[in-house]
Amino acid sequence: MNLTLEKLMPVATGVLLGAAAVAIAMILLKTFRGPTAICTLNILCIKTNSVANAAPQQIHIATPVDGARDIVVSWETSGPVEQSRLEYRPAGQENWQTTDVVSKRAPANGILGSRQWLHQARMTPLTPETVYEYRIRSQGRFSRRTYESELYRAKTLDDPIKYPLSIALVTDTGLAGRADRLTPHANPVLARLIDQPAHLILGLGDYPYADSDERFLFPEQAIGAWLREWQPVLAQTPFYPQWGNHECCLRETTDLWTPRFELPESDSPDGLSYTFQIGNVFFLSLFSPGVEGLTPNAYMLSWMDEVLSTAREGGALWLIVYQHEPIYAHGQAHPADPETRAALAPIFEKHKVDLHLSSHDQSYERTYPLNGVTRDEFSIGSQEVNEYRQGQGVIYAKVSPSGKKSNITGDFSHLPPEKMPMIAVANDKAHHFGVLELRSPEELALVVYAVDDTRTYDVLDVVTIRVIP
Ligand SMILES: [Fe+2]
C-alpha cells in the first residue's frame, strides 16, 4: 500500500477531531451528571433557560447583627432574576411583610466556571423569641416564570437570652454519597440537627471537599451541592462558618465562599476572622486553616490580643475561640503544628480563654484545662475528667469529623494506642458532632455525640465548666 502524506492527512484530521469531540462530550457528561450539574458553561446558561432559572436554592440564614431582631436570608439562582422578594410573618399570623432583595453575580472559578446569582434579604425589625415563617418569590428574567420556595421557619433569640441555649458544632462533613464511601454518616448528623435544631451553628471548616469528590468538575458546584444538602438545617438555624484548608486552598477558595454568607463585620487584618457575642459568651472565629504560610501572623496576633482584651473589659464572662487548625492533635492524618501552638496559646492564656474548638484531624481529642503551653510544654490545671471550674486553664477540644473520614488514612485519623498526657478524652472510631450548651449564665458545657448507621446518638464526652466564686 502506498501511503502518502496527502492520503494520511484527512485520516489524522478525522482522528484529531473525533478525539476532541469525545473529550468535549466527556466534560459535558461529567458536568451534567452531578447533583449540582447545571449551568456550567455561561453560554449554555444563557441558551438553556430550563436549567438556568430563577428557582431559589441553597437557602441559608444568618444573624450578623442582632439575633433577637434581625435575620438575613441568603440564596442562589442559576439564572438571572427579573423580580424577587422575601415574604415573612410571625408564625400563625395572616399578613405577610415583604422586604427588598439585593442581588449580585456569584464569583466563578475561571472562565469556564459557572456564574450563578446570589441574593440576600434582611428581615428586620423582628420581635425577640418569636418564630417567623418566610418564603421567597422569584421571577426569571427571560422566561418570566415565577418560582416560590417552600415555607421555612426561623426563631429569633430572646433578649436577654434565655437558658439553656444550644450551639451546634459542624465540621469536616463532606457530602453524602461519595464514590469513595468516606461519608457514611453525613446524613445522621443532618437528621439530628433538623429534628433537634440548635439555636446557632458554628462551622469549623472543611465542608464539601471539592478536590476529592469526583462528581464535581468545578468547585462552585461542590459548594452549591453542600449548601443544598445542608439547606434543611441552614434555612432554619443561623450559621457562623469559619474556613478550613479545603475552603481556602484545595480547589475551593475563600473568594468563592465568602460572598455567599453574611457574617459579622470585622476589622481583622486577614479579612476572614470575626467576632460576635451571644449573651455573656464572646466568640472569636479565627482563620487558621492548617496551611503552611497561613498561620496567624504578627498583625493577627495583635488583633486577637486586642479583641479578647476588649471583650473581657466589656463584661463577657466566657471566651470561646474556634478555628479549623487544632492546637493539640495526635492523629496520623493531621498532627498539630507545634509552632502554631507556641504562637497562639500564650494569647489564649493571657485572656483566660475558656474553651478552644478546632477540627481538621479526623478524630476526637479533648484536653484537661492547660496552662503554660509552649511548643512542647504544658501544665494541667485539673486532673478531673469532665467537670471543671472556670479559670483552671484553657480546654482544647478537637471535634472532628462530622461526616467525612480522612483521604489520607481512608478512615478516621488513627491516634497513638496510649493517650497523650494532656488529653482527657479521645476517640478515633466514631463520627461525631458537638453541642455547646449555655446552661445558665454561670455554666457552660460541651456535649459531644457519636453517630452511626442506627442514627442513635451516644454521648462521647461531656465537659462542664462552672463559675465558682
Ligand atoms: Fe482540614
Describe the structure.
With 469 residues, the chain is of the alpha+beta class. The chain folds into 2 domains: 12-159, Purple acid phosphatase-like, N-terminal (Immunoglobulin-like); 165-466, Metallo-dependent phosphatases (Purple Acid Phosphatase, chain A, domain 2), CATH 3.60.21. The chain is 21% helix and 29% strand. It is built from 9 helices and 25 strands. It has a 7-stranded mixed sheet. The protein has a 7-stranded mixed sheet with strand order 13-14-15-16-21-17-22, covered by helices on one side. A hairpin with a 2-residue loop joins β13 (274-278) and β14 (281-285). It is globular. 46% of the residues are buried. The model is unreliable at 28-50 (pLDDT under 50). Bound molecules: fe (ii) ion.
CATH topology of the largest domain: Purple Acid Phosphatase, chain A, domain 2
Just name the CATH architecture of the largest domain: 4-Layer Sandwich
- Mean pLDDT across every amino acid position: 90
Class by SSE composition: alpha+beta
| Sheet with the most strands: spatial strand order | 12-11-10-23-24-25-20
| CATH homologous superfamily identity of the largest domain | Metallo-dependent phosphatases
The dominant shape is globular
Estimate nothing, just give the exact number of structural domains.
Answer: 2
- Supply the CATH class of the largest domain: Alpha Beta
Number of DSSP-assigned strands: 25
- Radius of gyration equals 24 Å
Spell out which ligands are present. Answer: fe (ii) ion
Q: Low-confidence spans: pLDDT under 50, at least 5 residues?
A: 28-50
Q: How widely separated are the two ends? A: 100 Å
* Biggest sheet features: 7 strands, mixed
Total helical elements: 9
**How helical, in percent, are the residues?**
10-25%
